[in-house]
Amino acid sequence: MKRFADKLVLLALVAQSALAADWPQWRGPERTGHVPPGEVVPVSLPQEPKVTWRIKVGDGLSSPVIAAGKVFYSDAQEGQETLHALEAGSGKELWRVPIAPLFKDNQTAAAPRCTPVVDGDRVYAQSCTGEFKCLDVSSGKQLWQTSFTRDFGAVFIGEKGNAQGATRHGYNAAPVVDGDLIFATVGSTNGASVVGFEKKTGKMIWKSQNDVPAYAAPIVATIEGRKQLVVFTAEGVIGLELKEGKLLWRGPLKTTFGRHITTPVIFENMVVVSSHELGLIGIHVAKEGDGFKASEQWRKKESAINISSPVAAGQYLYGLGPQRNLICVDIKTGKEMWSKEGYISTSAGNASAAFIVMDKNILTLTDGGQLVMFAADCMEFKEISNVQVCGKTWCNPAYADGKLYLRDGRELYCVELIR
């Protein structure tokens, strides 16, 4: 009996380890940029990180993800946004599937921009033009598909007229899974701004709101005891009920081009988003009667974040400010605790950095391809170590089992951070 119990414990530990080793979607398992508790993380960066493998890739601004021993990424191949599956250990390609024709604007190369999402035996891919497909993880076989424009009447016009948000530069916001549903910012202003699909069949379960879609990925979070979908659209921040899509609260925010990019950060009952035009904004969500009320708590133009989603460690937010400066901000008050310059290479308007919370430290990948580890310390910036790992990049890396999966403009890398 004891031997049987020991085997059950061992199996549970193995299962837990397998689960912890996945980074299956944009910004990790919970979409917060946090390495899950219990997973081993480096306390400093190796002086010369070992590159386990590297492969040539086409143009792409979406990020790699890893699940069940496979790496998934999208790039441009032969005029198509193309989804690839690789062996995580070797980088060997297992399959590739075209998703949709490439979209080109004046901002970047014609390339996919939306990070794939893996859930169990399925992987979901969304194109710039709103083609949404579910594929089998093992074979790449298409299981179902829908089109935001053809099936829901969403309008995608590109850089024309007064186009805003995703209608201008593409559907970049990665869908998110919760339970049996997957939620996507479809963007139809005829009552289907956000849609909940049955994840196995693609059947529409609900549709909600009339907002123009932005670029920010939605997130599932619990606020004031209520689990909900938080979406940063081109017209504001909204909270939706998960089963039926009912609007729980709204914080209106309008800008000239709907350039709303940051994934919402939630700490307790505060929701933080940012716009280069409006600044960094803290929205307080509170219960009111049988519902909720959202009110702007603070707004800080001097801490405005443009294209890089920040992370929270405790009540402090860490991100990239408007002057190519790393910043720490108190989420409750909006007070900027410190600012540090000197790590970001490109111009202020297009500067980028990715952030991952690793226990008591934060790992940053700069747009110049440098990894910087610093302490999650609200009192001052404390660099722990830094190392160059790749060329110019806007990638949000995936971390699993001591390895970092990232891309630059030419290659996809698997880099060992723990030896």
From TrEMBL:
Keywords of the record: Signal
Keyword Membrane assigned: no
Domain Pyrrolo-quinoline quinone repeat: 81-339
Secretion signal, residue range per the UniProt entry: 1-20
Keyword Signal: yes
Protein name (Swiss-Prot/TrEMBL): Pyrrolo-quinoline quinone
Organism (species): Pedosphaera parvula (strain Ellin514)
Organism taxonomic ancestry: Bacteria, Pseudomonadati, Verrucomicrobiota, Pedosphaerae, Pedosphaerales
